[in-house]
Specification:
The complex is a heterotrimer. By secondary structure, chain A is mainly α. Chain A has two domains: 44-135, no CATH class; 162-378, MetI-like fold. Chain A is 69% helix and 1% strand. In chain A, helix 3 (99-137) packs across helix 14. Chain B has helices at 66-73, 103-109, 125-129, 131-135, 142-155, 159-162, 175-188, 205-218, 231-237, 260-265, 270-276, and strands at residues 28-37, 40-50, 55-59, 83-91, 94-95, 110-113, 193-197, 223-227, 240-246, 252-259. Chain B contains eleven helices and ten strands. By secondary structure, chain B is an alpha/beta fold. In chain B, the strands form two sheets. In chain B, strands 6-7-8-3-9-10 form a six-stranded mixed β-sheet, sandwiched between helices. A four-stranded antiparallel β-sheet of chain B has the order 2-1-4-5, covered by helices on one side. By secondary structure, chain C is mostly helical. Chain C has one domain: MetI-like fold (Orthogonal Bundle). Chain C starts with 23 loop residues before the first helix and ends in a 9-residue tail after the last helix. Classes of the chains: A mainly alpha, B alpha/beta, C mainly alpha. Chains in contact: A-B, A-C, B-C. Strand 1 of chain A pairs antiparallel with strand 4 of chain B, so a sheet runs across the interface.
């Protein structure tokens, strides 16, 4: 998955969005004899047809739903509305348009509706989390205290998730410290150094991006905790996180490095630079936006993992800043642990923690958008 | 100079009729056409008559808007984000940018062959030829379909070379053959006008010859507007010529247009004379 | 006066030997890079090997019945993965069946229909959807989506109950129907997992559609093609590899999903094909739920189950990579 913007091949995009009247067109108007044309892909008729069909379908279904049809629930209503809309729209469009246009309009409408469904699902997940977590978040203590000596069923004004927040931050920091150098070095190896083993390494890395996090956690649990006697701790979580993060960093960074034009490397070599200096001074800085993307993607993945802390750490209720001893709680683990109690108050806390987690992820994405847009501006 | 048309076959079509009777060649008229990419003016006040059933050549140095003008004639200009235009273009007596006109209908009547051959790789040669029929949802039965494929490939001068491998992929041909396939494909929907954007510039001399032969055979049946860098080619194939020029990165304009013999033989404008004599460009 | 060059005879022509040789700093650099690369390779390979080796004690203890037993009763030490294997496939299948059309249509909308200004926002929303932690989808699925989805389950079991997968062990037509028979089913879990499958498939498909050659698009437009005509003749044939590969990658993800399944599904063991009915289990949820109380041989069993899951996801993802790379669109696609 890549976040880097792709070249714009908008051949089917209508002209109407670039409003000529707003642009400063050269030369002055009086030199141009022809009349300016506004070209639209859709006429007023087209848009009225669309709106009218949707509206009439809504009315029809609204009237008969629940009364004539033995159905209830929002889902059924939406499905029937869609079907009625398709039927009505098809008839309306075919009155004044040939068949290819009718099919095209129906397909476009379907694409639009599918997109609305997906975006609505995402929005509902995000909004629902914040709405349910709001109660917990409004308590000042929620973000500044931990849950030591506080029962899960205690009211929201008592206790907080500070230990989980700190745990997540510490764990991801250590994980970054481990996986960033290793992942980056692997990417440099694959892209800049290469050699006989490069293909095998690349294949295995690719295979490892598919590793489900539960297996990474299980591996570390059996090897480190059971086998080597490491305690269930924040450090074990970081190691397991690195197992999932390294392949992501390596893969995405390799792509970012490959995109750097070879001409730059040649120029650097021609100026007498060693390969090492070329990589450090020329290639890596040029690819920095892509590398930052790789890092941010892997961080987003890491902080959201639940199965790993579930296996190799424990849902403690007290603050622990030592990653090497004692279980360290983290946001996903706290959420799961609270959920399992099935106590309403605990679940509200869980949603509060989920909101904090979501804010972290959203924050990462804002940073990412700023980074990639910034680069585009200066290029 | 006209090739023989095959016997008339009637279609049984639904919304769009496309009977294989002779479609009369159309007349194009551009009036004060100007074009912008974003806010940058690339064509200024271009007016040109392209009479029916004649071949009109557009010549001039690179970058002076000939291709842009051509793409305005079949409404491909607007597919580019940020493109703007002014002026009018008349096909017979219909203004093609009129809001009541459907762009797909215009493109059915004004076909285009591009500079770089672009057959559809996922389709066979036969499917490529009839791609336009599929896209415009024109219904034809099997016999008619085969008729069309053969006719169009004949007119494009490709039939003998591919008649035994119509099922092979459209991309498995040489460059010249691909271009002739694209010509056949454009002809299959029976346009009144055929626009050709430097159709031979990516081809070797032998293929160029064949394409020019095709143009010669089509002349008189279809109106052709061809952009070309090759002045000898313009002299060979066209009855009329328009000379485009842009001064120092400014917008392109028509300096002179008229009968080919006149533009080349006795140009009025010194710039035209300089260009056709090869002193620049 | 001009000079005429005399060419030496061919025997005189011989290439000079060039020995570039690396500087010392570069030799170290190469060595370190190679070392890290191989180290990572070894680490990753060790995981696979380690999981695989566990199957030896497992088979020794439980025999081949391990693969056919459908129960998981650790107290009686009567365990097998037949049930969870089926459950994993069920949940993943539901997720893909839901995700595939939505991802495909959304990807086409982004590349073919969306106006330029909106397009980058939509692309970001797809990436955001992929980054949302799965536990959040689990919570959302359980508390928000499930009450609505069980209505759909009931409708399916009512009107399509003749289809064996959709049967439920209760009377859907009863006036007060039993909600608990429909909650926490493989179907509902699959719907939540779909939220993670959609962005993955959509991102790959979108990347591929964006690369459909403009020349072909223009050819289709010039032949009087509509937007759908361009999609049909150019974009979809070109993007075939991305469509299949992207879906398979999403399948791989769905097979390994843990958190959302843990939250939604109520564990139940037994060969069950009724996806609408409450109770099912997947391999990942099995591991997560049972690792704490496992005896050493049960731990090996869990590892073996994990190994089976690993092989399946590895196979699916490798096949996806091959499909994508082999296709026309594969050349420039980054996964």
């Amino acid at each position: 998955m890549t976040i880097a913007e792709r070249p714009n091949h908008d051949l089917a995009v209508p002209l109407d969005e670039s409003d000529g009247a707003a642009l400063d067109l050269e030369p002055t108007r009086d030199e141009i004899r022809g009349k300016r044309r506004r070209v639209r892909a859709t006429t007023l008729d087209d848009r009225l047809e669309l709106a009218g069909s949707a509206l009439s379908a809504l009315c029809v279904i609204g009237l008969i739903y629940g009364h004539l049809l033995p159905l209830n629930g929002a889902l059924g209503f939406l499905v029937l509305w869609y079907l009625a809309f398709v039927g009505i729209y098809a008839v309306v469009v075919s009155v004044s348009n040939p068949r290819p246009i009718v099919i095209d309009r129906l397909v476009t409408a379907t694409l639009l509706i599918a997109s609305v469904i997906v975006v609505a699902a995402l929005a509902s997940a995000v909004i629902y989390t914040f709405v349910k977590g709001w109660q917990a978040l409004t308590n000042v203590r929620f973000l500044t205290h931990d849950m030591s000596a506080i029962s899960p069923t205690a009211p929201l004004s008592q206790g907080g998730i500070l230990h989980a927040i700190v745990g997540t931050l510490i764990e991801i920091a250590i994980a970054i410290a481990i996986s960033l150098p290793l992942g980056l070095a692997t990417a440099v190896y694959l892209s800049e150094v290469g050699g006989r083993f490069a293909n095998i390494v690349r294949t295995v890395i690719e295979a490892m991006t598919a590793l489900p996090e539960i297996l990474a956690g299980l591996f570390i649990y059996v090897v480190m905790v059971v086998g080597l006697g490491f305690p269930k701790s924040g450090f074990s979580v970081s190691v397991a996180m690195s197992v999932t993060m390294i392949p992501i960093i390596a893969r995405t960074s390799e792509v970012a490095l490959r995109i750097v034009p070879s001409g730059l490397r040649e120029a650097s070599n021609a100026l007498g630079g060693t390969e090492w200096r070329t990589t450090m001074r020329v290639v890596l800085p040029t690819a920095s936006a892509g590398l930052a993307t790789a890092l941010i993607l892997s961080i987003a993945r890491g902080i959201g993992e639940t199965a790993i802390p579930l296996l190799v750490s424990g849902a403690s209720s007290f603050m622990n800043t030592n990653p090497f001893s004692n279980p360290m709680n983290s946001l996903p683990l706290f959420i799961y642990d609270a959920y399992v109690t099935h106590e309403p108050i605990a679940i509200e806390r869980a949603f509060g923690a989920a909101s904090v987690l979501l804010i972290m992820v959203l924050g990462l994405f804002v940073v990412l958008r700023l980074l990639t847009r910034d680069r585009k501006g200066t290029r | 100079m006209t090739s023989t048309r095959t016997t008339d076959v009637e279609f049984d079509s639904v919304a769009h009729s496309a009977a294989l009777e002779t479609v009369p060649a159309g007349r194009l008229e551009a009036v004060d056409v100007s074009a912008w990419f974003g806010s940058h003016l690339v064509l200024k006040n271009v007016s040109l008559s392209m009479p029916a059933a004649e071949v009109t050549a557009l010549i001039g140095p690179s970058g002076c808007g000939k291709s842009t003008f051509l793409r305005i004639l079949n409404r491909m200009h607007e597919t580019i984000p940020g493109a703007q235009l002014a002026g009018e273009v008349f096909l017979d007596d219909q203004e093609i940018y009129d809001p009541t006109q459907r762009v797909t209908s215009i493109r059915k009547r004004i076909g285009m062959v591009f500079q770089k051959p672009n057959p559809f790789p996922a389709m066979s040669i036969a499917e490529n030829v009839t791609a336009g029929l599929t896209l415009s949802n024109t219904k034809v039965n099997k016999a008619e379909r085969e008729e069309i494929i053969e006719t169009c490939l004949q007119r494009a001068g490709l039939w003998n070379e591919v008649k035994d491998r119509l099922g092979k992929a459209g991309s498995a041909l040489s460059g010249g053959q691909q271009q002739r396939l694209c010509i056949a494909r454009a002809l299959a929907i029976q346009p009144e006008i055929l626009l050709m954007d430097e159709p031979c510039s990516a081809l070797d001399p032998a293929s160029t010859n064949k394409v020019e032969e095709t143009i010669a055979e089509l002349a008189g049946e279809v109106t052709i507007v061809i952009v070309t860098h090759n002045m000898q080619q313009a002299r060979r194939v066209s009855e009329r010529t328009a000379f485009f020029l842009s001064e120092q990165g400014g917008p392109g304009e028509i300096v002179e247009s008229g009968l080919t013999v006149d533009v080349f033989g006795s140009p009025s404008d010194p710039r035209t004379e300089d260009y056709v004599e090869g002193r620049f460009g | 006066m001009t000079t005429v060059s005399v060419a030496p005879s061919d025997e005189d022509l011989a290439p000079r030997l060039l020995s570039p040789g690396l500087e010392r700093s570069d030799r170290i650099y190469h060595g370190v890079a190679l070392g890290v690369g191989l180290g990572v390779l070894v680490l990753m390979g060790a995981i696979g090997v380690f999981l695989g080796i566990q199957s030896i004690p497992t088979l020794k203890h439980y025999g081949f019945g391990f693969f056919t037993t459908a129960q998981w009763q650790p107290e009686l030490d009567h365990i097998g993965i037949a049930s969870v294997l089926i459950g994993t496939i069920e949940v993943a299948t539901v997720a893909i069946v839901v995700a595939f059309p939505l991802a495909l249509l959304f990807a086409l909308f982004i590349t073919e229909v969306a106006p330029r200004r909106v397009k980058s926002w939509l692309v970001s929303s797809v990436d955001l959807m992929a980054a949302v932690p799965s536990i959040i989808y689990g919570l959302w699925g359980f508390f928000f989506m499930m009450p609505h989805a069980i209505l759909l389950s009931r409708w399916l079991s009512q009107y399509m109950g003749w289809f064996p997968l959709f049967k439920v062990n209760t009377d859907p037509n009863a006036a007060t129907w039993q909600q608990s028979s429909y909650t926490s089913s493989a179907f509902i879990a699959g719907l939540a997992v779909a939220m993670m499958a959609i962005p993955l498939a959509c991102a790959v498909m979108r990347g591929v559609f964006d690369q459909a050659p403009i020349a072909e698009r223009e050819a289709a437009l010039a032949l009087s093609g509509t937007r759908f005509g361009v999609i049909r003749t150019v974009v979809l044939p070109f993007g075939r590899g991305g469509i299949v590969g992207g879906t398979m990658l999403a399948l791989g993800r769905a097979l390994g999903e843990t958190a959302a399944v843990l939250i939604i599904i109520s564990p139940a063991y037994g060969i069950k094909f009724r996806i609408l009915e409450a109770g099912q289990q997947t391999i990942s949820a099995l591991i997560a739920g049972n690792f704490g109380n496992a005896t050493s041989s049960q731990l090996s069993a869990l590892l073996t189950a994990g190994f089976v899951l690993f092989l399946i996801t590895l196979g699916v993802n490798t096949a996806a990579a091959v499909v994508i790379r082999r296709s026309r669109s594969g050349a420039g696609t980054e996964l």
